[in-house]
Here is the input.
Amino acid sequence: MRLNYKPLSNYIEFFDFRAFNHESNLDLDYIKGISSISKDFVKTKANLIGVVSDNYKVVERNSFAYNPNTARMGDKIPIALNQTEKPILVSSIYPTFKIKNNNELLPEFLLMWFKRPEFDRYARFMSHGSAREVFDIEEMNGTMIPIPRIDKQREIVKEYKNIQNRIALNQKHIEKLEETANAIFSSYLNNEVYKETHRLGDLMEIKGGFSYNSEDLGKGNTYLLGMGCVSFTDRFVEDGMRLYSDKVPDQHLVKPKDIIIATRQQSENMPILGCPAMIPPSLNRKKMVIASNLYRVVNKSKLSNEILFQILKSQKYQEHIKLHTKGTTVGMITKDAIEDYIFYAPSVDFLYSVQNKIDTLIHNVFLKRTENQKLTKLNDLLLSKLATVE
Here is the structure.
């Protein structure tokens, strides 16, 4: 082990400060959950009806909290640092700690260490218990990490934050571009002049996905796309792709700019049922096939796929999907229900004449997405080098 590796117990101290002891009245609005993906505090999913906040733990600025129960957390450990000026309330079962001396170890540097996949693997390995796997206070205190000079820590944190800020700025640009494209398309749909009745099935055909064998997962270089690729808020989620055997039927292969649609969802409000996703151009070198829980769109018109995507994202289409959902516990939407969607819009010729405006905006969306993917890899590289910092 390198000489500069030290146990965290040298630098952190755990505390248990409850809301009923706080000088301010911390109500339910202060309660947060912790994301294992972003390693950040997020809106809680807990049912707060009838809950009193008094016994929740208080996490002040530059303090940490984490969920010690790793059994149901997947591969990542939910841990977060409060970087805001306001206190945060977390579940009473979450250990909370702070750094003893910020001139020896920066909270932001420690958070970077917690974001490394190596830490997640270590925490899972060190978890114990029969009914539950728990990464408790003793295990956290015993975690060994390299502690470089404080000026070196500041340099690394600054570089990491600069990249994060660029990613956040690009994301704002993406959201603005998407909003502009949606606003332009909505203005066309709401134009009362030259409106016609359209049936979606006259513009596109819906094709089913591939009934895959779970035993073939991870056995090839083909990517299997599932419902995890579809998001109500994002255009496409690459984390929903899994490696699969290369022996797949050609009729279920998809390519960049193709549209896929979620066929079912097990959820109370089913926000992604019938929702589309568009495969980004950055995946042009990958062989991809869709699973049976997705449909793929075959464009039969002269309109671009982006125009079809905008139709599938429209509020009236989403209302149509809710009205035609089959099932209760698991909601499903049929091919016919999608193709039979009737909407009013200008003629296909008119939409074709103005689609370049929207296509150009979305082209820039994909450019920003690709840039963010490269920046994320750069951040991952920076995190991987923390173990070798002197």
Summary: The two ends are 13 Å apart (CA to CA).
